[in-house]
Structure formats: C-alpha cells, structure tokens
Amino acid sequence: MSLPSSVHLHQADALSISSLSCAFQSIRKHGKVDLIVSSLGALPVFEWKGGLKPRLQAGLERICADGTKNLLDVMRDSTAHTPALIVVSSNGIGHESLERLPWILRVFYHHLLTYPHADKHEMEELLHRAYGLHSNDFNPSAKSSSERSAALFDPSKLLIVRPSLLTSGARTGKYRISEAGSTLDSAWTISREDVGHFIAESINESAGEAEPNALKRSGAYVVSY
C-alpha cells in the first residue's frame, strides 16, 4: 500500500532515549507535533518452564513502562510545545476493573497475561503521576493539591485507552465506553479496528492556535462491546 506524500516515516527505538530524541528532532522539521499515539507492547513467549504464565520476549519485559518513561522524558525535554498523548493500555489491570471482569476473563488474565499486565500497570503508574491523575490503583496520593500541582504535564492532554480482550474483527463503530476513570461491567471483547475508531473519534481535528488541545476527551476509558 502506497502512502500519501504528506506521510513521513521515522523509525526509532522506544527503549533508547537518544533514538527517540533524534526521531523527534526529525519529525519537528515537518511542523509542530500536536499528538502522539502510543501502543507499545510485545508478544508473550511460551516456555515449558514458564507453565501457564508466559513471559514477554527477552529484552522487552518492560517495553511499556520503560518505553513510556523515555517518551515522557523526550516530550518534556525536546518539545517547546507539549503534544497531546493517547496511550493504549488494557482493561483488567487495576484491582477495580479486574474485579468487574467476567470470571472466565479473570482466570485468563491471571494465568496468561500476568507479565504483560504487570508492565502495563507500571506504565499507568508513570502516566498517572506525570499527569497528576488520581486513581486508587495507580496514583492514590494525587488527591492532594500538592501532588496535582507537581504534575509534569496537563492532564487534559492525556487519553488512556483500556480495551477489553482484543480481537481481529471488523470495525462496527458500535461499542461501549466507560465514563472517564471508571470501568464497565461485562467487558468481554473489542476488535482492534474499533479501538482505532474510538481513538480517531477522540481526536480534535480542528486543533490549532485557537484550540491547542488535540483531544476531544481526556482521562482513562474502557472500550468494549
């Protein structure tokens, strides 16, 4: 598939802050960076010695936590204008959302996604602290005004997407989303294409000098059928 002339591809290593910084410098030659969408992750590896809890690929055990930390550092140090950020996480990471999962999914997540979810849990802790967002699971201390004032970034410029179990189905545009910071009951599955649809629908296409925020919504949302 050919790309339009307005699309510029820049390759970088999320685990290398120097690589990310160089990529940002190259990207900014084309104009201001208004929005970043991050969907870091790695495939689990099954090993007999690992039992029913597959680990992440060697060298990528902390891809979400360390990659996101590097991204936040580069955003803070390398951009005069702080872009909005959309991060794809997962439902069922925090205690509250895990308890509201269908019991079969709770068993599945516990045995097969222990290590990927531990990585994403640390990623969400980083994001909640950096943006001063309160969460009983990820940043309970942010209730205090001093904690919120110490945030590095504007919380209105962060959207955390927590999809339920991902499938390869077609886009329907018909799905449920939670209220910001809450969760959903009976959150079974969602297709990757519908997650992409939700992300696209959350972007403020008219963002500019008069309306600098590229997001229509902010906070953390569960997305599921």
TrEMBL record:
Lineage top rank: taxon: Eukaryota
SUPFAM superfamilies: NAD(P)-binding Rossmann-fold domains
Cross-referenced InterPro entries: NAD(P)-bd_dom_sf (IPR036291)
Name of the protein in its database record: FLAVIN REDUCTASE-RELATED
